Amino acid sequence: LCTTTPPLAAAIGLMDTETDCNGNLGRDIVNMTISTGVIDDHVPALNRGIRAIDLIDIRFGEGAEPFGGHWHTHEDTPDKVSAQSLQDVGSLVELGLRSNAWIFDFQAIEENQDQIDETEAEESDSSSQEQ
Q: Is the dihedral of CA 31, 32, 34, 38 positive or negative?
C-alpha cells in the first residue's frame, strides 16, 4: 500500500505535495511520510486470513491532531461523519479497485520475501544516509 497508494492519491488531488491529473495542487489528505500503526476493525479479518485495507481519516475536523478527535470514543456518532472525508476515501478506493492497484500476487511475495526484505533494508539505509 505504501507504494501503490500515493500515485493514486496524487492523481485525484489528495496529496498536497503533488499536482493532480488536471495540474491543480492537491489537498493534504493522504500523507504516507508518517507511518501510524492502527489496531482497528480490520484486524480480526486479517487474523482470520481475510485481506483487508483500512483507510482512516485520523485527523477529522479543522486543525485536528491525529487521533485527537472523536475516533472510537462515545462521541464517535453519526453527526461527526464527514461527507467530504467519505468522498475522498471513496474516490481513492474506487480508483484503486478500478486500476487493480491493490491486487497483489501474494504467493510470489511469500516466495521472494527474503529479497523484498533485503531491498527494503537497502532503501531504508540509503534514505537515512541522505538525511
A: positive
Q: How far apart are CA 81 and CA 77, in angstroms?
A: 7
C-alpha cell at 40: 482497528
For residue 40, give the nearest of 71, 2, 13 by alpha carbon: 71
CB 26 within 8 A of CB 56: no
pTM given for the model: 0.65
Cell numbers for 99, please give them. 486500476
The structural domains of the chain, with segments of one domain joined by +, span 5-104
The pLDDT value recorded for residue 102 is 78
Task: Give me the DSSP letters along 11-76.
Answer: HTT--TTSB-TTSPBPPS---TTS------TTHHHHHTT--------TT-STTPPTT-SSTTSTT-
pLDDT in tens, 59-82: 766 667 777 677 777 878 888 788
